[in-house]
Amino acid sequence: MNKDKTGKEAQAKSECSDKNCPIHGHLKVHGREFVGTVTSDKMLRTVVVAWPRRFFVRKFERYEKKRSKVNAHNPECLNARKGDVVRIMETRPLSKTKNFVVIELMGKETKKESVKGDAIVENETIDSHKARIAAKKEQQDE
Fewer CB within 10 Å: C terminus or N terminus of the chain? Predict the structure, then answer.
């Protein structure tokens, strides 16, 4: 059984016949690594993984919610489903749109957890931005 680049054994079945599995097959992973939620698992051995990000709009001095989405290969042994939180990592192109592979299942995301996490991040960024604006005003007054 091969170890993935992160050095962790995934929660996988003991055997897997998928040659594009980073644990049991010969697929090498490298480059970028993301943690996101599976939003769709309707394709064969492919999942759509999305994660939220915040973009600052200078004109309005506010943050805009955006999300990034990528297609990732879903090995038979991991079998991620819609709503699962997964870790994905970059690999060689597997198809026209797939350059990532699921390397670890991290659990399920509940609606309450996602809303609570978004609120905490939003409050922290707003507070830090208000502090920067107050510091600029103080410098201008001097």
Answer: C
